[in-house]
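My hope is that you will study the protein record below before we discuss the fold together.
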Amino acid sequence: MSESPEIELFENPRPERGYCITVRCPEFTSLCPKTGQPDFGEIIIEYSPGKSCIELKSLKFYMQSYRSRGIFYEALTNEILDDLSGVCKPQWMKVTSRFTARGGITTEVAAEYEGP
């Protein structure tokens, strides 16, 4: 896991049932590693929990840790997926990052994890 706030978990209340949780982080901010300018976007996390679910307050602090980091969209999307799936061990997870236009170009990156 990257150096960032700890992601807390809580017990899945219905581990016998397959269901999907969608979390949206519409005010995500990171820095462009080339210019140092802020990048604004939305991070969407979709997952089918295993034994644990992600606690949202700790997720908020984790997402805020990117505000001062210079990182490319592709790297941050995969890093978020690795960090979250590594901690909560979901059955399935998808992280999508959608960034606002910069120079007339928008970018969307999606990465998926399949549990064992």
